[in-house]
Specification:
four-stranded mixed sheet, 369 residues, alpha+beta, eight-stranded antiparallel sheet, single chain, globular
Amino acid sequence: MQTKFSLIALMTIPLLACSTAKQEKGTIVINNNSSVLISDVSVDYTSAKKSVPIGELAPHASRTYEIEYSDAEDSIVIHYTDAQHNKYTQTAVPYAAKYDKQRYVVDITPDLISDKSKMSTPQTELTDNPTSEAKGAAVYVTAIDETAPSSKTKAVPINSAEAEELFEAANRTNSQILYVGIEESGLPASEIAKLKQNFANLNSKGSYSGGRITHEFVNTTAFKMALVKNGGLSNILAKLNFVPTDMGKILGEDFKLVGAEYSGALNKGKFNSIFRSYEGPHGKRLEVNELYLTPDNNYSLEVYKESINFNLQGHLATLQHLKNADKDIYDLDFNVNKRVFSISAEGFSYSEFIDISVEIAALASQAQN
């Protein structure tokens, strides 16, 4: 039997329930795969500004840490020191919340600590723009500006009545993703009340947080470091059990890959999620998290109907709008072809953001699983 849990912020997907078999949910497994002692290991919560000391980790030893969830979204990094007193930071959980109790694995490998000098000259990797790659949050303004609509027709906001017409067809055609009402979730009454508040914020203020920046672009530095520590994008792709969507075909050469990290569930030595961060001209930034609903990991999703407010050319989605200083930030969460996407964009117009999202969905729909 599969157990179900909701994702308040895997990527930015606040209102999903995800199930995976045989996993210790809500934990981080820290593996020291090197031949040296790792000391001063700590688990650090970015938003909560809390650090939990773990201590030492012997060569080829592992430690399982239980995540301390709060009501707010957060991200978690691991700090540690090697025998030469070099200090390292490694992303453990890009986005974490009590509704997203997954099992995360952090591997401290020999290649990560063998050449500390690579960390002092990251520019070569940070400007890496592979041809097979590419594209990221805020306080709410008012309603989404539709005076400059997307050039992609059928990519439009929808109300609950319009969404309801699409749920039955979606449930009938995709056995891995089920759209349910919050009252059907089986969650405790206290959790349902919190989710209802999130929905109310979405409807009245444009975002689950009510206009408060949570995860959007707060971990850019950590993801830049992760890209370098992993030795570039090709090494990250090698750790995945799927081929992610080719962002380079969508963004082109104007955007540079500046950060990336693998995460998700570990199965047969491979992971099923990748986060990518891009920077473009005129201060534009894009973050893309892509999760593969791999049958090997026995993944399924429950999406709460109340979260759906957008039709991305036939793909049910959640659109959020915030503002960071004078720049608009848009979040879009949707699934297509066993891929779950969470996209955050800063500095884009509404039309530009939707056009890019449509292209991502179209390309992902062609992927072979």
